[in-house]
């Protein structure tokens, strides 16, 4: 029997032993953290799915490809994988530099990345990749759609959260005939673009113009 064949047999038997009695196998090795090489993992992919979160963290990015093939990752494994990506110390580089080919390599791991990591991936890379994957990949369509809608929602909220530069309401506008321009503002824009101090100094001006009830409520809410 050749040396390579004996090694395959050894790894297979070791894999069975660890799968059957993982805690006992680790104890006999006098360690609580199982660290296996990339080469060993290629031969024994099933072992990777049995690793603890601590062991996953200890191996860094070496086993990410194998982990992406695991059907049911534990909470500890997911936490460890997220920490690996958040560290930025991986060959893929930081999420802000990822391309569609990187996303293809990550495959199923995309589904477990936390929101902050997903938001760091360039929008013009991630969104088309998600759309294509929803139509053509074997990944969970429901999860992909949920990620896509979540990102759309959060980006929309961020866009709404700040007053557009051309909508800023200065004290000059509140003291001038330009007040008429505010009639076209939505209630949300009034809330975002009105300065409370300027509003308090010029509140009477709002009674001279035909604002809608919704807009007047937005002005009142701004004062509260």
Automatic annotation (TrEMBL):
Subcellular compartments: Membrane
UniProt family annotation: Belongs to the mesothelin family.
Main localization (coarse): membrane
Keyword annotations of the record: Cell adhesion, Glycoprotein, Membrane, Signal
Name this polypeptide is given: Uncharacterized protein
UniProt key word ATP-binding: no
Pfam families listed in its UniProt record: Mesothelin (PF06060)
Gene source species: Micrurus carvalhoi
GO annotation, cellular component aspect: cell surface; membrane
Biological process per Gene Ontology, one example term: cell-matrix adhesion
InterPro entries in the record: Mesothelin (IPR010335), Stereocilin-rel (IPR026664)
Record-linked Gene3D superfamilies: 1.20.970.40
Endpoints of the signal sequence: 1-25
């Amino acid at each position: 029997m050749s040396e390579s064949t004996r090694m395959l047999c050894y790894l297979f038997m070791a894999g069975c032993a660890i799968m059957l009695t993982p805690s006992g196998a680790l104890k006999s090795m006098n360690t609580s953290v199982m660290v296996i090489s990339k080469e060993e993992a290629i031969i024994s992919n099933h072992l990777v799915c049995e690793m603890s979160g601590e062991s996953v963290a200890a191996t860094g990015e070496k086993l990410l490809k194998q982990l992406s093939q695991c059907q049911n990752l534990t909470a500890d494994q997911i936490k460890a994988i997220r920490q690996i990506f958040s560290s930025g110390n991986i060959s893929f580089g930081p999420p802000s530099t990822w391309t569609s080919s990187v996303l293809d390599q990550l495959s199923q791991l995309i589904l477990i990345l936390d929101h902050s990591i997903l938001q760091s991936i360039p929008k013009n890379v991630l969104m088309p990749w998600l759309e294509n994957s929803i139509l053509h990949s074997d990944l969970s369509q429901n999860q992909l759609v949920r990620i896509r809608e979540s990102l759309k929602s959060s980006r929309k909220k961020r866009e709404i959260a700040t007053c557009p530069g051309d909508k800023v309401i200065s004290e000059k506008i509140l003291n001038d005939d330009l007040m008429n321009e505010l009639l076209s503002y939505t209630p949300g824009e009034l809330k975002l673009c009105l300065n409370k101090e300027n509003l308090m100094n010029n509140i009477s001006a709002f009674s001279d113009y035909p604002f809608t009830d919704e807009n007047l409520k937005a002005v009142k809410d701004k004062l509260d």
